[in-house]
Specification:
The chain is α/β, with parallel strands linked by helices. The chain has 17 helices and 20 strands. This is UDP-N-acetylmuramoylalanine--D-glutamate ligase.
Length: about 450
């Protein structure tokens, strides 16, 4: 019996444990921190051996295969020991993909991947296909494969998960964009991060597809120098294309295999140029999967968007409160500020991942009337933006941040939580940050 060791007892770890057990592995789960009670219950019910609060190396270095949580960096000493011992260390998507015959649509990118994944899942469901969204969202991919294998998966995939693949190859890969993010994990080299994102296509064949943003110079330059085997299908909002998807005169046009589909963007519920791109990417994938044009139109027009991504919370005294907690990098916040059509009080801050805020300067000058820094260490934000706005205040509490925003805002203004940073200094994760923000707004 082969021994599968799982490092990390979170969503991906527990899903992998269930699938590993089902596939006949001897499974051991080890977590350096504490495993949550809901996950412990699953391990106990499935009679899977586990430990938390530290790693017992002797029980790990005898593995035949190791699945590590995406949160554990490759340079962690234990991972280095495993690699030196010749033990294969893979990610959950690699493990799960080995045990399903489903059609996989893999979606990656610095921004827009959650919205595109949710849109893709919505399109598949509306088309009546047995399908779910998994990967970085919802239940883990491995858990689905183990307990209720689907015919189609829309998988949101991070660069960390792609770092742990060997044979993983989605039939359709979508690359939404690439901007500097997580550089702390890539030796502060942007090209390492780009290479990581492109791993989504590295095992694809001529029968597979890579859908990508042709307006993104990082992607087009990389593709010019590192061609892929899959069929490349671009999308653009700035130029007319002979193949792929493009936007013109408030219409999306999709041209694939001599068939054309046109739809108006006027009725799209999700607004902004970036969402037009997300819609084009998902619709193009749907066309490749032969989903009917009418179904695509209806699905895109009925899609409500994603929680914590430019989510309208409430209007209080004619001030709109907007939750964009999912904006954990500068580029995501750029989209958010760019879509503001009224003076904005901006709540920003958290764990800075080596952010360069210069791209935001024109938008801050144009749209932002006050900045509230919400983080344990706000020095960089204060140094960067102090001269640009009349009011810049720092706080370590979301409740206080919302109260200050209430005082700073006037009739017709927006209050925008778009942190441009990770959330781990004051919150469990960006969802927790978003929920606490909404709670604080409702309590005003």
């Amino acid at each position: 019996m082969k021994r599968l060791v799982i490092l990390g007892g979170g969503e991906s770890g527990i899903g992998t444990a269930i699938l590993g057990k089902k596939e006949g592995f001897e499974v051991f789960v080890s977590d350096f921190g504490k495993i949550k009670p809901k996950y412990l219950d699953v391990l106990k019910n499935n009679e899977i051996e586990w430990e938390d609060g530290g790693h017992t190396e002797a029980k790990i270095l005898n593995a035949d295969l190791v699945m590590k949580s995406p949160g554990i960096p490759d340079k962690a000493p234990l991972i280095k020991k495993l690699v030196e011992a010749g033990i294969s260390v893979i990610s959950e998507i690699e493990f799960a993909a080995r045990y399903t015959k489903a059609t996989l649509v893999g979606i990656t990118g610095s921004n827009g991947k959650t919205t595109t994944t949710m849109l893709m899942a919505h399109l598949l469901k509306q088309a009546g296909l047995k399908s779910v969204a998994a990967g970085n969202i919802g239940d883990s991919f491995a858990k689905w494969v183990a307990l209720d294998d689907q015919d189609f998966y829309a998988l949101e995939i991070s660069s960390f998960q792609l770092d742990g693949i060997v044979d993983f190859a989605p039939h359709i890969a979508i690359l939404t964009n690439i901007t500097p993010d997580h550089l702390d994990r890539y030796e502060y080299k942007f090209e390492n991060y780009i290479k990581s994102k492109f791993r989504i296509a590295e095992n694809q064949t001529e029968k597979d597809y890579l859908i990508y943003d042709a307006d993104d110079p990082v992607i087009t330059d990389w593709l010019a120098k590192h061609p892929v085997r899959s069929q490349c299908i671009p999308f653009s909002i700035s130029k007319q294309l002979e193949k792929g998807a493009y936007y013109a005169q408030e219409e999306i046009n999709i041209l694939i295999d001599d068939t054309t589909m046109t739809m108006s963007t006027k009725n799209l519920t999700i607004k902004g140029a970036h969402n037009t791109k997300n819609a084009m990417a998902a619709a193009t994938a749907a066309r490749l999967l032969s989903i009917r044009k009418a179904t695509i139109r209806e699905s895109l027009e009925g899609f409500q968007g994603v929680e914590h991504r430019l989510e309208q919370v409430l209007k209080i005294n004619h001030v709109s409160y907007i939750n964009d907690s999912k904006a954990t990098n500068v580029n995501a916040t750029f989209y958010a500020l760019d879509s503001m059509s009224a003076p904005t009080v901006w709540i920003v801050g958290g764990v800075d991942k080596g952010n360069d805020y210069t791209d935001l300067f024109p938008l801050v000058n144009e749209k932002v009337k006050g900045i509230i820094c919400l983080g344990v260490d706000n020095a960089k934000l204060l140094n960067t933006f102090s001269g640009m706005v009349e009011t810049i205040i720092e706080t370590q509490s979301i409740t206080e941040a919302v109260k200050i925003a209430y005082k700073l805002s006037d009739k017709g203004d927006n209050v925008l939580l778009s942190p441009a940073c990770a959330s781990f200094d004051l919150f469990e994760n960006y969802e927790d940050r978003g929920r606490q923000f909404k709670e604080a707004v409702r309590n005003l």
